């Protein structure tokens, strides 16, 4: 976890309501971007609910955040890939009277390899987490936010959402769903006072590759970002009320260049960059 907090990160995310009285829920909070999301939000004064499968690393992070930022942190282990997990989480928080003002839908993972060579059970599990759980969480917490007339939802998509990607076929498709879903919800919920933003990171220095079973090519290594700037980019866009944001100048260039390429060239380029 990055210990250097900028002045911008110390500013409350929502100027209309004091963030010290508000609470953010971060999924996938045991590793990767989830750690930095939690740290930056705590620095901005948000109390936290951390959700992931692994409890021990979240407990360690929670204690660090309590000491460092003086915020309340609740740790709730949950496997969001299990059907019904989102509703169960919402029920648990209601029992404890914990209201969620900011939802960071960060939990997810990828699978690298040819589709037919990947066990279908793993692919279905990934789709359940990346798509179904994210959708259910957005629904159950978005309902409360809309009823209150304010709230923020950040959905973590991917640079791979913008084109079909051989060897990441199902993963890229899940992230295309997240991007499209997030931008549509942005317009639907804006009149209710709820901001929805889709964040599209490129390759980031997290544990993604190890989980996906991928190696990093030399070209991809040059495009790799650290987690903190990605998180800052996403939250800054959320507070500004943007529908979506691509983190990093080079990644923005990739998205722009896609508009000028035939889709066959997009697939070939991604295969070259990501490796076999």
From TrEMBL:
UniProt cross-references to Pfam families, sorted A to Z: adh_short (PF00106)
Record has Oxidoreductase as a keyword: yes
Protein known as: SDR family oxidoreductase
Keyword Lyase (UniProt): no
Lineage: Bacteria, Pseudomonadati, Pseudomonadota, Alphaproteobacteria, Acetobacterales
Record-stated family: Belongs to the short-chain dehydrogenases/reductases (SDR) family.
Organism: Gluconobacter cerevisiae
SUPFAM superfamilies: NAD(P)-binding Rossmann-fold domains (SSF51735)
Transmembrane segments annotated in the record for this chain: none
Keywords on record: Oxidoreductase
Domain of life: Bacteria
């Amino acid at each position: 976890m990055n210990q250097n907090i900028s002045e911008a990160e110390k500013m409350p995310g929502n100027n209309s309501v004091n963030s010290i009285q508000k609470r953010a829920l971060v999924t996938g909070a045991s590793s990767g971007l989830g750690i930095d999301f939690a740290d930056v939000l705590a620095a901005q004064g948000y109390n936290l609910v951390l959700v992931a499968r692994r409890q021990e690393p979240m407990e360690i992070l929670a204690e660090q955040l309590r000491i460092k930022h003086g915020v309340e942190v609740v740790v709730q282990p949950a496997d969001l890939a299990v059907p019904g997990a989102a509703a169960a989480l919402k029920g648990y928080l209601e029992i404890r009277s914990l209201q969620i003002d900011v939802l960071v839908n960060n939990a997810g993972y990828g699978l690298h390899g040819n589709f037919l060579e990947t066990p279908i059970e793993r692919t279905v599990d990934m789709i359940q987490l990346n798509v179904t759980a994210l959708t259910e969480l957005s629904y159950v917490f978005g309902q409360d936010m809309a009823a209150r007339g304010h709230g923020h939802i950040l959905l973590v998509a991917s640079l791979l959402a913008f084109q079909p990607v051989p060897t990441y076929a199902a993963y890229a498709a899940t992230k295309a769903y997240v991007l499209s879903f997030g931008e549509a919800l942005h317009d639907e919920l804006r009149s209710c006072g709820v901001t929805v933003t889709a964040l599209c990171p490129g390759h980031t220095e997290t544990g993604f590759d190890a989980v996906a079973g991928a190696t990093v090519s030399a070209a991809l290594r040059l495009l790799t970002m650290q987690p903190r700037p990605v998180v800052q980019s996403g939250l800054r866009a959320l507070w500004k009320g943007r529908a979506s944001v691509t983190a990093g100048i080079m990644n923005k260039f990739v998205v722009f260049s896609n508009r000028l390429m035939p889709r066959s060239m997009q697939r070939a380029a991604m295969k070259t960059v990501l490796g076999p």
